[in-house]
Amino acid sequence: xxxxxxxxxxxxxxxxxxxxxxxxxxxxxxxxxxxxxxxxxxxxxxxxxxxxxxxxxxxxxxxxxxxxxxxxxxxxxxxxxxxxxxxxxxxxxxxxxxxxxxxxxxxxxxxxxxxxxxxxxxxxxxxxxxxxxxxxxxxxxxxxxxxxxxxxxxxxxxxxxxxxxxxxxxxxxxxxxxxxxxxxxxxxxxxxxxxxxxxxxxxxxxxxxxxxxxxxxxxxxxxxxxxxxxxxxxxxxxxxxxxxxxxxxxxxxxxxxxxxxxxxxxxxxxxxxxxxxxxxxxxxxxxxxxxxxxxxxxx
Length: 299
What we know:
Elements: E1 4-13, E2 16-23, E3 29-37, H1 40-54, E4 64-71, E5 77-83, H2 91-101, H3 107-126, E6 129-130, E7 139-141, E8 147-149, E9 156-157, H4 175-178, H5 186-201, H6 207-213, H7 217-227, H8 232-241, H9 252-260, H10 268-274, E10 289-290, E11 297-298
Antiparallel strand pairs: 1-2, 2-3, 3-5, 4-5, 6-9, 7-8, 10-11
Helix pairs in contact: 3-5, 3-9, 5-8, 7-8
């Protein structure tokens, strides 16, 4: 840590804390994620993972600049990752602001952001890596309104047998993670579906636990997206990304192809399930349904 000056804490999570730091020699400021290592095995594992992250070079992935080992005054050992500082906010903040103002995101912006995230995931998966914790708080904005995936924590290399280690935010776990099953790159496609759902509905919901109890709950999401004025292609894509079975979710290249050609008709099954139900009385306004998570009325 000798080369950096600690400025203040930016946040904390299950794997450690994130500080804003200044590189003393260049006066450039960065974000520094400090990951607690409980023993030498965890330290060596973290170092191997970080070396892989350092090789990632993509316009829609935050850049990793440096890494080092730090022992604090309590003798706790940290593996530290120095990364690009994203000063234009994250997607979660934008979603909360849109909800507060009762506005919605333009569909063209959503398609642009989703395409950029998909290109980043295609690059990551092509290098046999996973993010495992894709969510709105880990999607950061540039000054040009483009997005970057950040806060990888410790991503993981994919083995041919799949992974079982549970890493990420429980609220956003893919169903296979909740069930402690083997998983692959489709966990990131689930995360992409969560991001798309929250962009189109402006609200969080425990869709992972709901879908384990009733896979048809995703149809409620597609109806809500259609009612919010978004096209059937976007609603159908959300539906497919939130499939309970990982093999049913599209890959990053498949999502990119669908985003590039939104006029392509979604599957007939998705459209029939996602059709907005009209009120029995007036047959003009959408019927009111109950949110299974909180019993609030949604339309």
